[in-house]
Amino acid sequence: MSGLVWLFATVFLVFVMLLYFLREKDSPEFMQSYDVPQVLESYKSGEIRDLRFLPYSIFSERDWNFVQNEQSPFLHRLFLEERRAVAIHWLKERAAWVRAIRANHLQRSRYSKNLNVFAEARLLFLFFYLLGLCRCLLLIVQIANANTLRSIALHFEAMTQKLVQIHLGFSNYAPTEEKAGFRS
Amino acid sequence: MTMSAEVQKAHDDLWRRTLARVPGDLNRMIYLASMRDYNSGRYHHAGMEAHFGYDAVRQALENAHEELFWKLTRSSLEELVAELSLYVDRSGESPEELLRTWQMIQPYRVAIPMNVNALAAHLLLSNLRLALEVLRNRRRESRQSR
Question: Mutation test of the interface with chain A: which of B117, B138, B142, choosing the one with the most A Cβ atoms within 10 A?
Fold first, then answer.
């Protein structure tokens, strides 16, 4: 019985921390202004798809092996520092995309008459999932070797690209009213 | 990116007659950056402008600059070290001086095209810093082993 209580207490604590974690206001330097129409235009033009190579390069095992073969402790440390900085930049940019798309979607769906509840729920889950994953990655990348995050980073990039794709699909909603020049 | 016929001709001419003579992609990118005015950001090549017109040449130079940027950004660190080594060898300067100067004042920062993705630019600059350290480390080891 006491085991069950501990389990519930732990789950409850994790839930509260997650809620706080996801709703915490971001510092100004974390929140970047992203023009959603610009993000979507970049996707349509192929620019965002062209950036898919970035996490492969940032978390490259080949580069890490190359640096290790150079047998220089200073170079190892420099490599980890540099890649950590680029990884953080990448995560912040992707998080800004997700937030911008979320805010834009909330605004557009307010004026839409043909909402699909299942699709909206799926999108909501995706927003929370991506933002939560991003926060976790940001924490882990500060303390661990960036290369250890390769698989999850590639997964995160794929899901973010998928979100942009889904949002493009939602852009076919027939809004009764639109506000121009929205920025997150 | 699709190019108009004039821009395409200028672009092909640039690669065939000018860039083909410059060894290595890093060298080419730095060369193209030198064609850009620091104040206006516009590219100039007097010889080509006489044949193809200012607008076509400006666009062709900008396109080529960005192509090389993306190619270098996608390169592995090992490939970039090879490119930097080639640049150092062909510069005509003392390798030690060049590497020290590059580490101190980072002149390669102005070789990046203007309108590229900031994250991609960050990655390339970061890789160049690493490549510099790799070369300096190798030279140090080579001196110590003598």
Answer: B117
- Position A1 confidence tier, pLDDT thresholds 50, 70, 90: low
How deeply is A24 buried, as exposed, middle or buried, from its count of CB atoms within 10 A (0-12, 13-18, 19+)?
Answer: exposed
Tens-place pLDDT, residues A74-123: 999 999 999 999 999 999 988 888 888 888 888 777 776 677 788 888 88
The minimal CB distance from A63 to the residues B70, B76, B118 is found for B76
* Angstroms from B54 CA to nearest CA on chain A: 26
Q: In chain B, what residues touch A70 (CB-CB under 8 Å)?
A: 134, 137-138
Q: Do A85 and B120 touch (CB under 8 A)?
A: no
Cα(A161)–Cα(A43) distance, integer angstroms: 9
Rounded Cα distance between B62 and B115, Å, is 10
* Average predicted confidence (pLDDT) for chain A: 77
Q: How far is CA A128 from each of CA A21, A50, A98, A135, rounded to the nearest angstrom? A: 11, 25, 9, 11
Token digits of residue B62: 């900008």
The pTM score is 0.82
Q: Three-state DSSP class for A178?
A: coil
Residue B73, min C-alpha distance to chain A (Å): 9
Give me the residue label for tokens 């190019």: B3
pLDDT above 70: residue A43: no
pLDDT digits (tens, 9 = 90+) for A31-41: 444 566 666 66
A80, A147, A177, B107 from B125: Cα distances, Å: 15, 19, 44, 11
- CA B33/CA A47 separation, integer angstroms: 22
